[in-house]
Amino acid sequence: MAHRACDALDPELLQHIRECPCPCDHMGYGNFLDYQVPPCPRIASPSLSRETTFGVPPHPHYSRPPQYIRNVPPELYYPYDYDSCSCSSGSDTARRVSFRGPWCVCLVVCVVVATLTAGLGLPLALGPHRNENASSEERLQLVRKLLKDSPLIDGHNDLPWNLRKFVHNQLNQLNLSKIKEEDPWLTSKWSHTDMPKLLAGGVGAQFWSAYVPCKSQHRDAVQITLEQIDAVQRLVQREKKYMQMVRSSEEIRTVHREGKIASLIGVEGGHALGSSLAVLRTFYNLGARYLTITHSCDIPWATGQDTVTNEGLSDFGKIVVREMNRLGMIVDLSHSSVYTARSAINVSSAPVIFSHSAAYSLCNSSRNVPDDVLKLVAQNGGLVMVNFYAYHVACSVNATISDVIRHINHIRKVAGVEHVGIGAGYDGINVTPSGLEDVSKYPHLLAELLSDPDWSEKDILSLAGLNFLRVFEKVEEIRDRWKKAEIAPFEELGPKNELEECVSKSS
User: Fold this and answer.
1) How many Cα atoms are found within 13 Å in the side-chain-facing hemisphere of 411?
2) What are the start-end ranges of the E strands in 351-433?
3) H or E segment and range at residue 278
4) Are 362 and 445 part of one and the same domain?
5) Is the pTM here over 0.85, yes or no?
6) Based on the domain organization, do 53 and 185 belong to the same domain?
7) Are residues 439 and 338 both part of a single domain?
């Protein structure tokens, strides 16, 4: 919707606001989010050159590539085919004539067919049409049927860190089907995951977190991360009857069709890299498919906490994001400062995710995502996967399933149903909402959403996992495009820590 004062603005000021990356109010005239225009679908406005804006609405993500991004052609930096837009930018008469050609008739026919398909075909494809008066048990059974055909993908589970805390990663005697029958798993408030509950929860794919604490920064963070990756791989191998490691979106679909839980690795905390792009590449080669840029604490190339300095990614941090784009590794912004999140969204050519966060406007935790960033995520094509931690969804211990639904609905309202997912954070939280006590409860959440007429079966499947698959596939598409263009690995050296500086000076 255009800003109400749009028509009165000086054209140069209007163009400036549309292209300006800052969220400032521009003397009361608003910012770029206030000047969204209907999609062309690629060119935002005839008055703006395609060199400065390819998306709709104008957004700093689509500005010229920064100078430090070398060897990346503009057509690769921008993941959109701007030449495919054939909307006329000429006179009104020319535009009226352009809608009388044969292609327009074809377009109308396609729209009609698509509408009929959406109205008639989807209920058939998604199973029996939902009864608006169905009981909670009937909705629950419908959800279970839907999840057999389409995977539920959770963005974050901290079981690997509990394996380290409770059994020191000694897994030879571990039985994931029975751990909840014995201490410390039985009595721990941090334990929500075992095999029976995963199966009951209809989990189709799970990101297992290779988490390293901030205190390990500049010490043994890289080693701990490697040990956690090893623990995930060995756990999945031990449970090969039920789980299988995967590294691609297609493998998720294949393993889900085989009736197993597709298991992926997410590295939580950019300090795990030791400021080394070689370590980043090694993690990717070992199977890690997302990196959480920061884990609350600041690191040498990104801020994890909002400070008065308003700093986000350093130049090297931006290179890390670009190397992740090249590898096909998803950029995760949970735990990052708002400034780091905005910077990463602006730099990344691929969609980003928040793997386990909620809505800041409903609960002002620093983990949660403000509305302006939710809008940036939507423009970026990314995803916010909603966390279940009681303090993040209700700002207190007294959270319920309804609080989680409020956050899901808010993100849907601000960013769109295509940009919300699930990242519960089980085994990394000690207070869960009533009704979502452990990993068996996902179907109950989806069944409750189905009681809302605004949520169709298609929407439920998008939330459950299809949105994430879309993001993952886009990340892989950009990786493949860069590989075809023979974009070389980035080789910039990261910032030195204090110990390295001392050794360098002494030598």
Assistant:
1) 33
2) 352-357, 383-386, 420-422
3) helix 277-285
4) yes
5) no
6) no
7) yes
Angle at 342 between CA 359 and CA 467, to 5 degrees: 55
Residue identified by tokens 């020319």 is: 94
| CA pair distance 143, 448, nearest whole angstrom | 10
Residue 479 DSSP SS3: helix
Give a yes or no: residue 38 inside a domain.
Answer: yes
Q: CA-to-CA distance for 279 and 481, rounded, in angstroms? A: 23
Measured distance CA(483)–CA(477) in Å, rounded:
10
Rounded distance between C-alpha atoms, residue 397 and residue 389, angstroms: 9
Task: Return the half-sphere exposure (C-beta side, CA atoms, 13 A cut-off) of residue 350.
Answer: 29
pLDDT digits (tens, 9 = 90+) for 279-338: 999 999 999 999 999 998 899 999 987 665 667 999 999 999 999 999 999 999 999 999
Q: Would residue 404 count as lying in a domain?
A: yes
**456 pLDDT tier (thresholds 50, 70, 90):** very high
For the domain that residue 267 is a member of, what is the CATH number? 3.20.20.140
For residue 498, give every residue at least 6 positions away whose Cβ sits within 8 Å of its Cβ, in sequence order, or none: 218
* Residue 65 in tokens: 């590539």
Contact (CB, 8 A) for 296 and 304: yes
DSSP state of 474: H
Q: Angle CA(257)–CA(248)–CA(114) in degrees, nearest 5?
A: 65
Q: What is the pLDDT of residues 54-97, one digit of tens each?
A: 333 333 333 333 333 434 444 454 343 333 333 333 333 333 33
On whether both 22 and 157 belong to a single domain, the answer is no
Asked whether residue 53 falls in the same domain as residue 150, the answer is no
Tally of helices (H runs) and strands (E runs) in the chain: 20, 9
Place of tokens 């028509």: 7
| CA pair distance 326, 64, nearest whole angstrom | 18
CB atoms within 10 A of CB 448: 20
Which tokens hold the place of 238? 């031990």
Type of residue found at 434 = S
According to DSSP, the β-strands at 383-386 and 420-422 are: parallel
Angle at 253 (CA atoms; ends 251, 257), nearest 5 degrees: 115
> 3-state class of 336 per DSSP?
coil
DSSP state of 117: I
Same domain? For 161 and 13 the reply is no
| Paired tokens of 60 | 């700093």
Q: If you write DSSP's letter for every residue of 300-334 in order, what string do you get? A: TTB-SS--TT---B-HHHHHHHHHHHHHTPEEE-T
- 165-215: per-residue pLDDT in tens? 999 999 999 999 999 899 999 999 999 999 999 999 999 999 999 999 999
CB 174 within 8 A of CB 236: no
